Amino acid sequence: MLKRSITTMLAITMAIYPFLSIRGSTHSDRSVSELLSAEQIDNLMAPIALYPDPLLAQMLPASTFVDQIDKAARYLRSHNNQSVGVDDQDWAISVKSIAHYPDVVYKMNEKLDWTTAVGQAYVTQPADVFNSIQRLRKKAKEFGYLKTTPQQTVVVEKEAIKIVPAQPQYIYVPQYNPQVVYVEAPSSGPSTGEVIAATAIAFTSGLLIGAWLNNDCDWYGHTVYYHGWHGVGWVSHSATVVRWHNSYYVNPRYTAVHYNTAVVNRSVNFNNINVYTNVSRNINYNNVSRNRVNVNNVNVNNVGTANVTRNNVSNANLNRNINSNVVSNNAYRGKPTSSTMAAPQATAKQRPSGFSGSGSSAQVRSQSQRGSTSRASVAPAAVSRPTRAAGGRRRN
């Protein structure tokens, strides 16, 4: 009898083991050689570490749905850069959310290898990703670049630096060069460094805050969580002007933030990922390149300091945001549907985002087309990362 019971238990254990092993990707799911180092993750996070928390909380899970990012970009371009109708698409909720900000989607789509690498890091090394963002923010703040402005509020809370909207109605996307904002500004006089620091970060026009910004960052639990428009800080401020009641984006089913673990099976050409030598010296991805892509693509193009231009301004790509004059865009907001909803313009000089890196328009188009042919045909396997309520992180 005992022998039969033991045999039965072993059989059951072997049967359920595969399901236990795919429940969530963690450090143990990959060999040490395939994990990214702190320097490698810093290099990946550098272009977006200074983005506001509500936007990061949608971009990180959305980066795991690479095919849907591409679909969203195609949809927005075919609809004259307008987000009307994105709520009806069969995309992940995080992809629908950032689709309300077309310029963000376009940039993620133009750098699909970078987006994929970010998604893989978020799935397999979430704590390292959140620690990297905090590490970079501390550098930017220490050197005088990251500060409270009319567009954003910088909150230092215990060991975490939060970046939240300064206005309840609008969120602003910072434009900066990662080669500049994480190092001390050169100074040839008493005030030169201060002037450089003050002008190194510019902002796009204000983007409407809507019910779709339903997530936030838990810097202590190293995760993204659903707030459902109940909370403090920027959430409570914006909740007074956002029409979130009975909204598509407010639903108990979003309590568990979904992400796609299948992103780890995609190939990444690390040769197409910018390297910021001012963020991490002598950075390369040789250890992961050998395991994830053809060995011939190991060499990484180095974006040197010689290519840094603080005044290389291109306004062509900065105004592809939501048209606040479109009546349907006000459906989630608590303001009258009038044609006078233009967002206040940023007063700072606009600069190209560190997202775009460098290169000609032909190179950008090539990168976008590259993503269409190099993506692996893997079906999204969306799972839910344990989230936390206001009082702490919930673990499954």
Provide the succession of SSEs.
HHHHHHHHEEEEHHEEEEHEEHEHEEE
Helical/strand content category: alpha+beta
Average pLDDT level: 76
- Terminal CA distance reads 35 Å
What ranges have pLDDT less than 50 throughout 5 or more consecutive residues? 12-28, 293-342, 345-354, 356-379, 389-396
| β-strand number | 14
**Sequence of strands across the biggest β-sheet:** 1-2
Which range does the strand content fall in? 5-15%
- Gyration radius, to the nearest Å? 22 Å
Describe the sheet with the most strands.
2 strands, antiparallel
Helix share bin = 25-40%
Count of helical segments? 13
Count of discrete domains: 1
The global form is globular
Q: What would your notes on this structure say?
A:
This protein is of the alpha+beta class and 396 residues long. The model is unreliable at 12-28, 293-342, 345-354, 356-379 and 389-396 (pLDDT under 50). The protein has one domain (34-390). The chain has helices spanning 2-21, 38-45, 53-62, 66-78, 93-98, 102-110, 112-124, 126-142, 178-181, 192-199, 234-238, 286-292, 361-374, and strands at 152-157, 160-165, 170-171, 174-175, 202-203, 207-208, 215-218, 223-226, 257-260, 275-276, 302-303, 382-385, 388-389, 392-393. Helix 4 (66-78) packs across helix 6 (102-110) and helix 7 packs across helix 8. It contains 13 helices and 14 strands. The strands form seven sheets. The protein has a two-stranded antiparallel sheet. A two-stranded antiparallel sheet has the order 3-6. The chain is globular. 34% of the residues lie in helices and 11% in strands.
